[in-house]
Q: What sequence folds into this?
């Protein structure tokens, strides 16, 4: 009796072990696939276009974005993304990179607010200027340690609101961000999901966005990432550059503090 | 108007490694738009690489090549400071030529 139970136990154990082995090898293979693609990452095409756009005189005022203050002073791009989102006194609100770019396009170049927000995400027939600018600006922070400030009360407020949103359950599926991103080793199909409640998980996730999505043939920004998470959760559409999107970004970016930024990356 | 390529070329020993990223939609002709109409095929047909005027690679491409293609190859005889030129033409007659100095 005991012998039989033992044998049965051993079979279950070996089955579980081989299943676990299958899982890790899938993950390893995806990691290898990413490494192979990293060398020829098409995100570089977006970076090149973004740099040209940054320096090109455009809009009703016919000026470039080179005087745009991304938080480290007018025109300073290097390392700026690693300290965003942050509070900007001229706008009197916390802004992430996309929001700040819209601000600069309006205040410096004289575009209307509506035009500046047009086409935040590119598709097969339309290229997004904002995605290109984000690609270049973020590439200038590669290797820089994440250092998102929490010194201004509005920055602390954004973090607190972002945390609330992260754990807020709702929608037709009664989902929160934390439903999928609050435990280790969760998956959507074969994709490992980062546990964003741990520093390691938040760091790994946040520092690898923006990314070129091979399956979409497009470079995607962090605003897109959050927008698509909301879609998958069956939440109402997350409005581009809304306070909610900035708060959630602040929460995740701050949790990634201390890690070296390493994007634009490439993802399946 | 076609957008620029991104090219890198490095010589190690007697072999030069060239890496090219191209900006192209590479439509297969199989995809349908939101109205259900087929999206016409649009892809790079020929790729040529020349080193100091000598052709080192010549390729015919089709619709099986991915969007924003990445091409990597090696050839012999390149030296630091030489120029490598990459040119492509697509099935619409659009073309693009870019050049890089070997480092």
A:
């Amino acid at each position: 009796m005991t012998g039989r139970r033992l044998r049965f136990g051993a079979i279950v154990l070996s089955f579980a072990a081989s299943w676990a082995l299958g899982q890790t090898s899938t993950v390893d293979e995806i990691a290898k696939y990413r490494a192979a693609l990293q060398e020829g990452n098409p995100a570089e095409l977006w970076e090149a276009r973004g740099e040209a756009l940054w320096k090109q005189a455009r809009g009703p005022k016919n000026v470039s974005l080179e005087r745009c203050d991304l938080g480290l002073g007018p025109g300073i791009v290097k390392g700026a993304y690693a300290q965003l989102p942050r509070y900007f006194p001229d706008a009197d609100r916390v802004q992430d990179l996309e929001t700040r770019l819209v601000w600069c396009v309006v205040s410096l170049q004289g575009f209307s607010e509506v035009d500046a927000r047009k086409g935040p995400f590119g598709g097969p027939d339309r290229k997004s200027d904002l995605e290109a600018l984000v690609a270049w600006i973020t590439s200038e922070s590669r290797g820089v340690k994440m250092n998102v400030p929490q010194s201004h009360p509005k920055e602390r407020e954004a973090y607190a609101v972002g945390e609330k949103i992260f754990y807020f359950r709702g929608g037709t599926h009664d989902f929160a961000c934390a439903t999928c991103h609050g435990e280790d080793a969760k998956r959507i199909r074969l994709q490992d999901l980062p546990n964003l409640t741990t520093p390691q998980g938040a760091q790994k996730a946040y520092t690898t966005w923006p990314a070129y999505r091979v399956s979409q043939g497009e470079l995607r920004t962090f605003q897109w990432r959050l927008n698509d998470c909301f879609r998958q959760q069956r939440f109402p559409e997350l409005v581009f550059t809304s306070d909610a999107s900035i708060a959630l970004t602040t929460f995740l970016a701050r949790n990634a503090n201390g890690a070296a930024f390493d994007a634009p990356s490439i993802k399946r | 108007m076609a957008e620029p390529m991104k090219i890198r070329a490095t010589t190690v020993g007697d072999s030069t490694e060239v890496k090219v990223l191209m900006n192209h939609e590479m439509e297969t002709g199989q995809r349908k738009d939101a109205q259900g109409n087929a999206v016409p095929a649009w892809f790079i047909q020929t790729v040529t690489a020349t080193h100091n005027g000598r052709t080192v690679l010549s390729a015919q491409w089709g619709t099986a090549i991915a969007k924003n293609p990445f091409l990597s190859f090696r050839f012999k005889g390149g030296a630091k400071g030489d120029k490598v030129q990459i040119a492509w033409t697509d099935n619409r007659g659009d073309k693009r030529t870019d050049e890089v100095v070997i480092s």
User: Anything to note?
Assistant: Residues 1-39 of chain A form one domain.
